[in-house]
Specification:
Length: about 130
């Protein structure tokens, strides 16, 4: 594992923890944020893609780890990359996932829980590598 992979684990662990906790503690703020993006139509979808692509690229090109707890972060990075590509190629169709936040607010809690699991795996992998 490279030193940069360890840095990515720390950065993404912190980012996922903060954003995941925010989804759970402030779901209504996230719901409103997603509705604002949905109201922008395809431009809002592209905005979502612009927020998704940087962490995807950071993970895919900086954290190519395929074993242990760090695997979860790598898989998350590839999932984000597929999501970003889908958004950019099919912005009108990708609006459905943004609008889901208004129809099923529990999806915001689920996303927060998923991000906390990724954060936990990232921090655990990080702690194994800096020890």
């Amino acid at each position: 594992m490279t030193d940069f992979s360890i840095i990515v684990e720390g950065i993404m662990g912190a980012a996922c923890a903060i954003i995941g906790l925010s989804h759970i503690v402030r779901p209504d703020a996230w719901r409103k944020f997603f509705l604002v993006m949905a109201d922008k139509g395809e431009a809002g979808a592209i905005e979502n893609g612009m927020l998704t692509l940087p962490p995807a690229l950071l993970i895919v090109f900086g954290h190519n780890v395929w074993s242990g707890p760090a695997l979860l972060l790598t898989l998350y990075g590839y999932a984000l990359l597929v999501k970003a590509a889908y958004i950019f190629l099919f912005p009108a169709r990708s609006l459905a996932s943004i609008e889901l936040a208004d129809k099923w607010q529990k999806s915001i809690y689920a996303a927060g829980g998923m991000l906390l699991m990724i954060a936990a795996a990232s921090f655990y992998a990080f702690s194994l590598n800096v020890a």
